[in-house]
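call fold(seq) -> C-alpha cells
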Amino acid sequence: MTTSKTRPVVSLCIETDTDFHANLNQLLRLIERSEEDAIIVAPEVALSGFAYERFNEAAAFTDHALQQLQERIGNRLLIFTAISKKGDAFYNTAYALHNGIILHSQDKSKLFALGAEHEHFRPGEEGEIAPFEFDGIKIGILICFELRFKALWQQLEGCDIIAVPAQWGKLRLDHFVTLTNALALMNQCFVIASDAANEETTGMSGIITPFGGEIRNHGNLSTTSRYEERTVLSMRRYLNVGIV
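ret:
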C-alpha cells in the first residue's frame, strides 16, 4: 500500500524590527518551537525589512543569518526572503534552507513600484520562478507582488505547495486574501502565505488547502496545519483540469 506524504506546515506572522539581530533571534525561536520535520514560511525580508538606507548592512547581515539558520534548521524546510548583494547590485532573494544547505534560491522578478522597489533592487529572472523538489514534494515560491501575475501561476502549475512570503500593504488586505485563496483553487495545491505583522501590512498569513479551506493567523505568531499529498491528489481527481 502506498503511503501518502505528509508534513507539518507552518505560516509565520511576525513583526519586522529595525534591530536585525532581534529579527533573527525571533525567527530562530519560532523555528525551534516547530516540529522537527515542518515546512516553515516566514515573511518577505523577515530579517531586516526593506531597510533602503541600510542595504549594505542588511546584505552583510543576510550572510551571517544564513549561516546561523543553516546550522539550526535541521530536518525542517525554511522559506523566506532576504536582501542579498551580487556584484554591485542588490536583490530580494528567496531562500529554501534544509539540513545545513541552501536547497533553492530565486530573486524577486516583479518589483513593486508603489514601494519604490525598482529604485533599489535589481529584478531577478522570471525563469527562476520554477518548482523545486523537497522530499518528493514539489514546491514553488511567489514573492509578494509576484502573486498578481497569472503567468507566474502557470509557471508553478503542478506544485504541491506554493509559498508566498510577503510584506503586503494593509490597504489591499482583501486582495491578499482573495489571491492566495484563488491560487490554491486554481493550481489545486496548498498555499502557505506569510505576511509581516507590521503596522502597514495585513498580518493575514495563512494556510489554504486545494479545496479552499483556509486557516489565518489572526494575530498569532505562527499557525500550523498539515500538508497531505492525498488531499492534492483527491482534488485533482475530483475536478480534473489537467494538472498533474
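Helices lie at 20-33, 55-72, 150-155, 173-186, 229-238.
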